[in-house]
Design brief:
CATH class of the largest domain: Mainly Beta
Pfam families: HTH_3 (PF01381), Peptidase_S24 (PF00717)
Number of helices: 5
Protein name: XRE family transcriptional regulator
CATH topology of the largest domain: Umud Fragment, subunit A
Strand order of the largest sheet: 2-1-3-4-9-5-6-7-8
Strand content: 25-35%
Helix content: 10-25%
Structural class: alpha+beta
Shape: elongated
Order of helices and strands: HHHHEHEEEEEEEE
Mean pLDDT: 86
Largest sheet: 9 strands, mixed
Number of domains: 2
InterPro entries: Cro/C1-type_HTH (IPR001387), Lambda_DNA-bd_dom_sf (IPR010982), LexA-like (IPR039418), LexA/Signal_pep-like_sf (IPR036286), Peptidase_S24_S26A/B/C (IPR015927)
Keywords: DNA-binding, Transcription, Transcription regulation
Low-confidence stretches: none
Number of strands: 9
Length: 217
């Protein structure tokens, strides 16, 4: 996540300029500014006045809010995410990481990922099980973010490791019974809730939570 408005502005200005293929000198000429001013903006050292900000918005054809509101995204803005398509790749990535030479990448519109679009370390996987096939069937693509168990929220869909197997389930916390539940949402009648007492949660390794999924039709 971007920490300050000035940091967000500098990052998005630099990306817009580079994507449009113009130099700082050329942009400075368009705005009637010095190249040094553009450089200071992109370094995050200075923030433009309202008139200059409006000039940037007009030149790049974006809303002014795009420069200082993180939740304002462009339709054309995409995020490049590594995609693991085999069980062996998925396991290796979850455990130890994997060489960039062994994976392909997908590009998703940033708007698909909501507030997570700017997070580092997002990964995409092809689903190889039917534990959540009410939402996404076997063969669908999911995007996950690494999380710690303590950061989970009731209702998150998680990737976890338990009893020598990986699974994707809905995470639930039942305070009345002092248990965590990992619940399938599946057409498979053989799948059941995994119930873990609070004091035994250390036996479960929560690896990531699902932040987006693409459904095959």
């Amino acid at each position: 996540m971007v920490n300050t408005v000035q940091e967000l502005f500098s990052k998005r200005l630099r990306k817009l300029r580079e994507d449009s293929g113009i130099t700082m000198v050329e942009l400075a000429g368009v705005l009637g500014m010095s190249q040094a001013t553009i450089s200071e903006w992109e370094k995050g050292n200075k923030f433009p006045r309202a008139g200059a900000l409006q000039g940037l918005a007009i030149h790049f054809n974006v809303p002014m809010e795009y420069f200082f509101k993180e939740d304002v995204l462009l339709v054309t803005e995409t995020v490049k995410i590594p995609l693991y398509t085999k069980a062996s790749q998925s396991t290796q990535s979850m455990c130890n990481g994997i060489s960039d030479k062994k994976v392909e990448y997908i590009k998703l519109p940033a708007s698909f990922l909501g507030s997570y679009y700017n997070e580092d370390g997002l990964e995409a996987f092809v689903v190889l099980e039917d534990g959540m096939d009410h939402l996404f069937p076997n063969g669908s693509t999911i995007v996950v973010k690494r999380v710690e168990q303590r950061d989970l929220v009731d209702g998150d869909i998680v990737v976890y490791f338990f009893q020598d197997a990986y699974a994707i389930r809905r995470f639930r916390k039942n305070d009345a019974k002092n248990v965590f539940l990992f619940k399938p949402e599946s057409t498979n009648p053989l799948l059941y809730d995994v119930v873990i007492p609070f004091e035994e949660i250390g036996n479960v390794e929560v690896l990531a939570k699902v932040i987006w999924y693409g459904v095959l039709v």
